[in-house]
Request: fold
Amino acid sequence: MPVFFGVFQGLMPVAGYFLGGLAGQLIESYSGIVTLVILGIIGGNMIREGIEALRNPVGREKAETCTTARLSMPTLVFQAFATAIDAFAVGVSLRAQSVEIFSASAIIACTTAACCVAALAIGRRFGHLLGDRAEVVGGAVLVAIGLKAMFL
Reply:
């Protein structure tokens, strides 16, 4: 998971840097809306499923099967892309400031991957405290990221 998020966060500024002249303003204008819609759908679905799980407890095996299905390869790629859309606009800005894009994107990718590793470690260590509420909290975080992308 950290690799997916790091790669997408690192590649999107490069794409913005090189494609920014073509459609940079258009993409920069709508990236917040697209991010909010994608993360709102994913996060809203997680919140709905988490609330259903809290209302109707299921066996441990069934819950683990559901979690594995949500962390499939297409889901990870989709979430990594959705959270990296605004990084395209960063690439456009970096081009305007004549920043060396490859070193900047490598730093962005490594920082993102390191933050994901730290978040996974924290989640594994303290996830049991939230129990079934973790899915609701995770969905709320995704929706909050989408709202941040839209309004900030």
Remarks:
- The chain has one domain: 2-151.
- Residues 15 and 88 are 6 Å apart (CA to CA).
- The mean pLDDT is 83.
